[in-house]
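Sample 3 of the quickstart, ligand glyoxylic acid:
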Amino acid sequence: MRPAVLVTKRIYPEAIAYLQEHVEVEYCDTDDGIPAAELLTRARGKQAVVSQLTDKFSPEVIEQLDPGLRVIANVAVGFDNIDVPAASQKGILVTNTPEVLTDTTADFAFALLMAAARRVVEGHHYVHSGQWTKWRIDLLVGQDVHHRTLGIFGMGRIGQAVARRARGFSMRLLYHDAMRAPAEVEESLGLEFATAERVLREADFVSLHVPLTPATRHLIGAAQLRQMKPTAILINTSRGPVVDEAALAEALQNGVIAGAGIDVFEREPQVHPLLLKLENVVLAPHIASASVDTRRRMSMMAAENAVAAMEGRRPPNLLNVEAWSELSQRGA
Ligand code: GLV
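Result:
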């Protein structure tokens, strides 16, 4: 009998076709997602689940998964929706989709930065609503981007891709990370490592590129926002809970910082009601990796990871090597 995979939500058709060539596929062909109880029922008898960031694999859910399940293949680079240690404990491989979305996400972080700095969305509404009647010396004046200081939290693949873009704008680059980048990376990108406090104090733009972990939850709260310049702009394309959204809304309303560009939220798809009323924030619906090519590649990568695991091969984007060693030792 061919192994079987559950696909919890709609993905690009070529990935479904690839899965169908190799394994049996149970496909939830909608964008709704399935509640945990249904996921558990549908995952019964399957060897793989192709999941998305809206599927929550808590330790309790993982505990109840079928012992035959080999892999959870997430269609995302972030995997905070999956408790990886719990999966490893149960001998379940976990994979993600790194690299294909690095440049696409960095492009979007920069798009938000530019839009917020130069008030692009306000300008659009101004023209669209017929308010534009004359040229004015100080109409919708914003912040310069070129030659300003960009502070990056998280100097992984996406942080570095944002830094590369910033160099084209002659920006000065400060960064903070729990782990300092290799000297050659710092040198080639012109990066200066600094404390979090210094990054916040000196940056004109702060862009977040850290994974969501207990250590990064509310990395930016009221106290950190107060350390930023009143002219500064915060960009978040990482994960919503990295920022205390209520504190951000208040800081934007009270002029503690000048603006923000936000793609990710604490309780998606809900957005803090105050953010919805403010003009000085550009909001997007978690679309930083959403180019046609990238979302197609992410779908294919997850499918390839799932098939590799089901065929007993090490998946290319394995996150928990410990689970693989355990499986290999068992000769599974
Ligand atoms: C999207 O947010 C991702 O993690 O890929």
